[in-house]
What we know:
Oligomer: heterodimer
Strand content of chain A: 5-15%
Helix content of chain B: 55-70%
Radius of gyration of chain B: 22 Å
Largest interface: A-B, 55 and 49 residues
Order of helices and strands of chain A: HEHEHHEEHEHHEHEHEHEHHHEHEEEEH
Strand content of chain B: under 5%
Amino acid sequence: MLRKTLAAATAATAVLSGAGFVLSAGPAMAQNEQFIPRLVYRTGAYAPNGIPFANGAADYITMLNERDGGINGVKLVMEECETGYATDKGVECYERLKAKGPTGAAYFSPLSTGITFALTEKAPGDKMPILTLGYGRSDSRNGAVFAWNFIAVGSYWTAADIAIQHVAKELGGFDKLKGKKISLVYHDSPYGKEPIPALEVRAKKDGFIFKAIPVTHPGVEQKSQWLAIRQDRPDYVLLWGWGVMNSTSIKEAAAVAYPRDKMLGVWWSGAEPDVIPAGDQAKGYKALLLQHPAGKFGVHGDIEKHVYAKGQGVGKDTNGQVLYNRGLIDSLIGTEAIRTAQAKFGNKPLTGEQVRWGFENLNLTAERIKQLGFEGMLKPIKFSCADHQGADEGRVHQWDGKEWKIISDFYSADRSVVDPLVKEVSAKYAAEKNITPRDCSKEQ
Amino acid sequence: MLYREAGQFKTSYTADMAIFPIRQDRIALILLLLFAFVGIPLLAHFQLWPLGSDYMLRAILIPFLILSLAAIGVNILVGYCGQISLGSGAFMAIGAYSAYKFGTGVHIPLEFLGTEIRIAPLPVLPSILLGGLMSAIVGILFGIPSLRIKGLYLAVATLAAQFFFDWVFLRVKWFTNYAPSGSIAAPDLHFFGYFVHSPIERYLLCLVFVTVFALIAKNLVRGNIGRQWMAIRDMDIAAELMGIRPLYAKLTAFAVSSFIVGVAGALWAFIYLGAWEPLAFSIDRSLQLLFMVIIGGLGSILGSFLGAAFILILPILLDQVPHAFGVPVSVETVSHLVFIVTGALICYLLIVEPHGFARLWSIAKEKLRLWPFPY
């Protein structure tokens, strides 16, 4: 019995210390490596959309390693952490990964507005840049207040503005908007609520009747919302959904015979996983484009050649999809920020603080974008201390039952609508959190 | 041999009624508290194993402490008073949102009366405690049905609280100070002029809250009121015949439980998350707390801690095992495996020991008394 007890005690101690080891120490890393954490969700209600994005972001980093040996000789190491789109899990992942690698994480890209809000509170203390490509806090465009957030390429407020511009164009001018009914079907979370202030401002300005209709997470139950729409007959329905909610909305719209070509999704509601499950019912459905369309471009050739041909990579089956391409851009902006920072701090692994400087001074010219193989996917983008968004353009594409077709030119969001909102809401945040905004004229 | 109470004579009633009557227990508890209050901060300060980075503090210990506190609250209601509650997430949310409102200033315009109620922003400590108090008031309100309905029917009534408050905090913009996204950020943590900022300070703050409330809870359940709760739990008709008022006993259980859960909710929002939305306190959170209590041991303060550790830390640990040993599996496989293994372990544990970890612990203590000659 004594021996048994002792053996049990030893085993328990071994397990406990093993546990401590697992929780505290990671594998040792070589010194000339830049660590890039990847918060992903490949499981749960949002996985259909999370997977292609995660694949694209991962494949681009693998490609840089295979083709160029990293960035200027610094190898990129990444590790994924599954968040399941849950905020508390995202925070745990962030804490787990932020200090890995020789210099800690380069930047975080959470792909969830809820996690973005939580990390925004932690980033300044940890000196960690947060890259949110076309999502997150719309007011974080104001880099003077949100020094660590980079809401690259577009915010929900620019999206809302572009959506109304497109509706106006289809109707034949802004004056035709007067008295029209535009409803927003949104995911009832910070993500879905973000566009509402911008749409309210536009409604006041253009005289249309705006109505916001919430859908509860995860969005598989929308019968009553669409019955209300059938009753109300709005002229347009804007869709701000994510994951299974999008395809459900399209199916419900078909069930109440609401014309799909009068539906306009945000750029997170306009990818293959959103329309394919709805089958033929999705024909004619329109959505915004975060600049880039589906399809293959220069960079895809490199990925084919350097990643897939060598039997590596994770996203072969999603290659060229809308969200896969967005994942590529996500990693493009992050890695180019590292490259920019290396020009100042030297070709070595950098800290989050140094990468933040790289983000703020990132200038992707048309020529550089062409060089990188992203021509046709991205317009020039330039961050500055005052502008952490860097671009305002968007397009619209339409699903024809087989593929996405671009049906509009580039729209540019009306800064006179969006900027006062950014200023107002970020000032409120600064006051609440006692942040003294940086003086951008003094930053270089 | 070591754990034996022979020779420890109690010569006064005070000694007989001590919270830990056995000397070894007292020593162990003092050592544990010393380690928690001094050892861990020291290890973290000098960055020694296993606290080399803030990960251990910020992602494991702080949420563990806060969820333990919530589990103590739930245990008082479910484990001691026998009232099944599925609304714990809602009571956490009430604590969090009320603390936020008190911390940022309350303003209720009463235009039809031509007046308004305005409370200036309060410091963090009163905000958190008032958050708990609001939660207690709502807990009493939702506890009233428990006087008429029992068991699973009561669980459904508390489920209503869960969905009602999910809805309220999503839709009533007043609670979020009209934030455009509905997500709100906690005010800075100033305690008596001291800015609690670093992970060690935050950990100590949580620890103080948990220690104080655990002691209060332990004393409550040993005393008059705790015995009333347990009498109601074991057989309410018999308890009533013995002169225990169900109204008083049940509602105090709801009040104390919701207060502690509410304080835990405020800490979860203010210290762990920093910024939150109602989804952080969804039905999943309620179920998680209930599982903690069931697995840890119904009717045991220690069980609340053990249950919280099991439910919170085990999945995180399992999640990291393949990676730490360099097994190349994708994140989705790992997260599915975590579900399978955790679920299987819960089933196994409940079959082997239906009374939870706390019972295992007391069996171990019984065995230790007889060691090395058990029979």
